[in-house]
Amino acid sequence: xxxxxxxxxxxxxxxxxxxxxxxxxxxxxxxxxxxxxxxxxxxxxxxxxxxxxxxxxxxxxxxxxxxxxxxxxxxxxxxxxxxxxxxxxxxxxxxxxxxxxxxxxxxxxxxxxxxxxxxxxxxxxxxxxxxxxxxxxxxxxxxxxxxxxxxxxxxxxxxxxxxxxxxxxxxxxxxxxxxxxxxxxxxxxxxxxxxxxxxxxxxxxxxxxxxxxxxxxxxxxxxxxxxxxxxxxxxxxxxxxxxxxxxxxxxxxxxxxxxxxxxxxxxxxxxxxxxxxxxxxxxxxxxxxxxxxxxxxxxxxxxxxxxxxxxxx
Length: 313
Known about the structure:
The chain has helices spanning 3-7, 12-40, 47-60, 63-89, 93-119, 141-156, 172-182, 189-211, 213-219, 230-298, 308-312. The chain is mainly α.
């Protein structure tokens, strides 16, 4: 029994809890992507956008900018690869989430803020270009790594819904509506509503990040000299959501998978018992037939019928 079939058996309250966590994920990704893009012209989680930026930089041969963008893409991939390797290698998935995913996300967020504070990246704003390009943008490297870890976690565990990008979600609801109208199928409407909600919350997160741009930029200003823990707060939020998501999915999905596995094992055992019983009956019947045949050879039927032998004489 797969995740998809299990998810259809969830109660309305369980579905609402998962929906709330996925929506919070989507809002958080939208917020940080909008903020980082306005500050640096790069994305945190949308590597398709960074790939486009890298191609443009390559065409203009801006070597320093190319190195920064390529580094973000590579670290994003590495973060996801490290998580996938641990998830595949260790049977205890809880240890992977609690001992690797959550600590790594928080540490990377703190490291990003420390690097930004020490390097003064984007401290004068993106518009005049001072300290907001080239080597001053490497403070985004830990953010790219933590995004790769969190994104891989979201896509491989529990309900498996990607919340860091909305391109794929945009076509789910129209497809569900068309299937409902043309084929009378209503099973995909719930998934369509979920995708539409994730898209909406991502947009709201982007809007909030755009509105928060000026205050964040002012806090980065060297005249203020503030240590701005924007990525620390973001990483703590993502880590908390990962913990809540894993705990809920462990309760909802893993317990149901265990129950289904036990049922399947019992069913297999009963089938084996039935087959064994049938084999025993067949073997017993064959033995009786063989015994009867041997008896017929030793004592023919005619010899066992009274008066048969005398009359034949």
